[in-house]
Design brief:
The chain is an all-alpha fold. The chain is built from 3 helices and no strands. The model has no long low-confidence stretch (mean pLDDT 80).
């Protein structure tokens, strides 16, 4: 098989003209050229490293010291405290507030 000659190329162009119309042929040729160039760039095995930009930020997190005094209470004291706060937060139903 040989390469495409002038008569074959004219037949191919005529078929393309019939299929796509005269207005779309330049766009089609441009997109085919761009695709060919992109393919060639992708298949090149260059030793150049690909440059990527990575943005890093250093954020200082403040250190929080644990409280100096720790509080301990019994279960009964905790329940009493919860009851007192609940009574203050919710007024009784017969309260006119």
């Amino acid at each position: 098989m040989g390469s495409i000659g002038a008569p074959e190329l004219l037949i191919i162009l005529a078929v393309l003209l019939l299929l796509f119309g005269g207005a779309k042929l330049p766009k089609l040729a441009r997109s085919l050229g761009e695709a060919k160039n992109e393919f060639e760039r992708g298949t090149k095995h260059e030793d150049k490293p690909v440059e990527t930009r990575v943005e890093t930020r250093i954020v200082e997190v403040p250190k929080v010291d644990p409280p100096a005094d720790s509080v301990t209470m019994s279960k009964a004291e905790l329940e009493k405290l919860i009851d007192e706060r609940a009574r203050r937060a919710v007024p009784p139903p017969d309260d006119p507030r």
